[in-house]
Amino acid sequence: MRESSADVLSYLANSGISLGTELEVVETAPFGMITCKVRTTEKPLSLPTDVATDIYVSRPAEPAENEHRQYNEA
């Protein structure tokens, strides 16, 4: 996460987003909202584009056969 206000960081934490949290983008609205599914809560979360673009992401590591999926932290 880039530098953000304490309010934004608190909102993300209360929404279940922290370092290593898996998100899936499910919709990008034409008016600037990005809806993600947060794996820890399974609930959709809509974020303004300017907040969403401050979240660093990486693709999950490919799981080896018979291993649990591991994720790269951004």
Automatic annotation (TrEMBL):
Q: Which InterPro entries match?
A: Fe-transptr_FeoA-like (IPR007167), FeoA_core_dom (IPR038157), Transcriptional_repressor_C (IPR008988)
Among its keywords, does the record have Iron?
A: yes
| Assigned keywords, A-Z | Iron
- Residues making up the signal peptide according to the UniProt record: none
Show where the Ferrous iron transporter FeoA-like domain sits: 4-58
Top-level taxon: Archaea
The answer to whether UniProt assigns keyword Transferase to this entry is no
Give one Pfam family, short name only.
Answer: FeoA
Q: State a single Gene Ontology molecular function.
A: transition metal ion binding
Protein name per Swiss-Prot or TrEMBL: Ferrous iron transporter FeoA-like domain-containing protein
